[in-house]
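Q: Sequence in, structure out?
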Amino acid sequence: GARYDNSSGRGEPPRQLPPVADRRRTLRFGRKGVERRKMRSILREEQMWLITGCLLVLASLAMAAGLYYARGVMKPFVVALLISSITAPLVDYQVVRLRWPKAVAVATGLLVVAVVLGLFCLILALAIQSVVQTTNEYRDSLLQLIRRIGVELQARDIKFETGRSLEQIQSYVVRLLTLSAGTVMGIISGTVLTIIFVAFLLAGRNSFRARKGFYAEVDKKIRRYIATKLGISAVTGILVWLSLAALGLRMAVVFGVLAFLLNFIPSIGSIVATLLPIPIAVTQYDSIAPMIAVVAIPGALQLTLGNIIEPKIMGEGLELHPVVILLSLAFWGLLWGPIGMVLAVPMTAIIRIVLIRVRSTHMIGNLLAGQLPDESEV
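A: Exactly. Output:
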């Protein structure tokens, strides 16, 4: 232990000597030797962190490859996990409070899930059908807009290849419709598999066991996020439809449905939904005021609902940095397409909760929340 030197006898406070173990080590190895041993210890710790980081990167790449290869099964399974987390309170209430048999409670939950998914697929199919029926009108609007831009640019002696741009717009519209139709058919075909997964997840749930710790945190945050997102998206779609219909814009119902669907994609979806009516507005209206209103009113609705009302309802949220959200949208969209972009935020939030609870990856979990190492240690 530490000792004190009182040999001076001058009434000064005792001088603390180094601990016996440190003094013995210093006498044995010398001061430089002790410093070298400390440096080796620090380097060894940094090497361990580097090895851990490399292993995490390799594991992430391997997991991404597996998720991409098994996307046909994993997408319905992840959707089923999220749906079962919302439906679980209904099943638990029937089993625990009402004392209904487990089979009846699960059947009731599946009926609710089937009705909601059926309505969602119906709305999606009607939206795609409306877009297909008005494809020529939308394409003609885009072509007319390109011609008008070309005339204005040529009047100012700016070189603009109108014919090439028109061909690119036509081919892009055709590819977009083909991709949209394929996406809808994939969603409808995956609905059956999703319902099967939900049935097994609800049947294997123990309604009498209280969830604590990690599972309770995941259930609470993901359930609140999905419920809030669903309600805000529905309100957004209805308000966008009513506002565009009040302005007399063609295809107002289609744009309302697209606003509802795209609102599930954070940040990017609302911007795309706001800009979609521009070609129709430019070709339909002669004055600039309604063109601005077609963009400004839905944009104000999206901004108010998404940035003011939604955070207040959601509370503390999922604690993800905006840059992390954008990167997760790109990553999961690359793996699973549009469905991956919808699932990006809850999936990344679950990964963050897992990382934050493991000591070796706690710093990475804080980074996903935008907390730098110095800030997390305070």
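The first strand starts at residue 4 and ends at 5.
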